[in-house]
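Kindly go through the entry underneath: sequence plus fold tokens. Please state briefly how this chain folds according to its tokens.
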Amino acid sequence: MTSVAEWYEKNLMLHRFWSVDDSQVHTEYSSLRSIVVSNFEETIKMPINEPAVGKRKSQIQEYVDYYSGAGV
């Protein structure tokens, strides 16, 4: 996820707007990590999310499994 955010920063001239990890966003059963990148004016924001290990599959992991990979 970090390398993807760096690609957006380098190639699309976006910057890191906000980020959280699984210690901040979690339930008893699932959690996620997220980096949000934005344009200079902060009118466009793109979240980049990935699942973190939990007792059950997160919605993000279900998406990745269903579509056999990441998506935009």
